[in-house]
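Reminder: ligand-aware prediction takes two inputs, not one.
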Amino acid sequence: MTTELRVLSEAERDAWFGCLELAFGGVPFSPESREMYAALAEPQRAIGHWDGADCVGTAGAYSFRLTVPGGAAVPAAGVTGVSVSATHRRQGLLTSMMRRQLDDVRSWGEPLAVLLASEPGIYGRFGYGAATTEMNLRIDTSRVRLALPPGTDGVRVRRSSPAQALDACEAVYGRLAADRPGTPVRQPGWERVPVNDPESGRKGGSPLQCVLAERDGEVTGYATFHLRPAWDDAGPRGAVAVRDLAALDPASYAALWRFLFGIDLTSVVECHNRPADDAVLRLVSDVRRCEVRLRDGLYVRLVELGAALEARSYRAPVDVVLEVEDAFCPWNAGRWRLTVDEKGAAVCRRTDEDPELALSVNELGAAYLGGVSLTTLAAAGRVRELRAGALAEAALAFSSDAQPWCPHGF
Ligand SMILES: CC(=O)SCCNC(=O)CCNC(=O)[C@H](O)C(C)(C)COP(=O)(O)OP(=O)(O)OC[C@H]1O[C@@H](n2cnc3c(N)ncnc32)[C@H](O)[C@@H]1OP(=O)(O)O
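Here is what comes back for the chain with acetyl coenzyme *A:
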C-alpha cells in the first residue's frame, strides 16, 4: 500500500479532522469544540497522509511561544492532532510524519517542538523527553483545613460567568506566564480553550462555573470548576472538580481555595493538572488526606540544539562539554560546549574538546525546562559523567525554582 504525505489544503480540512476524530475512538467533537479548533488550526503547518481520497494520517504544529527558565518566550512548534487510521497503523506512517514535521520545524527556525502525549510510550523514539509533571489531587475537604495567610479576609471572591471573566482571567494568566517555564504564551483565540465546556467534558458535573478574586476592585485571581453536588443522611458527598485556578498573590490564592473548600453539599475537591509544586499542599492541615497522583506532562524536543540551549537562561555559571546522541535529528549529534556567564546567559557552540557529560537529546529535552534534574537522570543511568564535578555543576545550572508546568491542553 502506498500513501502520499502532503501539507493540508483548505479543501481537505474536514477529511483530516474526520480521520483524527476516528483515531481517537470516533466520538464526535461538540460543534463548539470543532469550531474553536478549526479557528485555531494552522492548516499550512498541518500534514496528512492520503490513501487515494482517504485521509489516513494527521499531524499539526501550532506556532507557540513557550516560556523557558529566565522568562523568555521561545518559538516552539506545539505538536497536536497526531493520528493514524486504525486501518494503517504500525506501518510507519507516524514515523514518516514525525520525520517530515521535525524537518519542517527546523526549516521554520523554531528551536523547540513540544507536545502532550496520549501515551507516554510513543514519542521518545523521536527525541522527545518528558519535561513537566502534572499533579492530580483529591482532597477530603470534610477533614482537611487551610492555614490562611494574612490578608485573605481582604480578598473578595465573586461569581462571574466564564465568558464574562475571559479578559480578566487572560490578564492574570499573562502576568503569571513569565514565571512558570512550560507555559504557552497565549495568542488571540487561545483564551477560549480553558473555558470551552462541552457536555462530554463535564463528567456528570455542572456547566463550568467561575469565581474571581478581587482586591480594591482589581482582579487578582480566578478559579473555574464543575460541581457534582450530592448528599445523604450522613452529610455532603459531592465533589468540586477544579479546572483552573490562578492568583497573583498568596492571599488571593488562599481565598480561592477557601471558597472551593467551603461549597455546600461537597466533601471533596478534585484537581487535574496542577503544577508539581502547587502551594496548596503547603496550605493544608493534613497532607495525608490529599491523594496525589503524578503523571507526565509536556514533552520537549530540542530541534536546533544550540539555539535551544542558548534561548533559556541558567541558574548558575557553568562551562561543560556535552556529548549528545540524536539518531532522529543527526544535525544535533556530537559535541557541544555550553558556557554560561554570571548572569545566566549561555553560548552553545560545536567543539572537538573532550566530553564531560554524555547524554541523548531526550535527556536534554527532559531537563530543558528545569524540572527534571540531570543528577536524577544520571542516577537512572541516562546521563554519564565523564569529568568529576561536571554533573553537579550542570545540574545546578539547568535547575529552575518554579517547577515547569503546562497549564492547559492543546
Ligand atoms: C501530540 C498528540 O497528538 S498525541 C496523540 C497520538 N495519537 C493517538 O494516540 C491516537 C491513536 N493512535 C494512533 O493514531 C496511532 O496508533 C499512533 C499515531 C499512536 C501510531 O501510529 P503508527 O503509524 O502506527 O506508528 P508507526 O507505525 O510509525 O510506529 C512507529 C513506532 O512507534 C511504536 N508505537 C506506535 N504506537 C505506539 C504506542 N501507542 N505506544 C507505544 N509504541 C507505539 C511502533 O510500535 C513503532 O515502533 P518501532 O519503531 O520500534 O517499530
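Residues 162-177 form the longest helix (16 residues). The two ends are 32 Å apart (CA to CA). We will return to this case in the review session.
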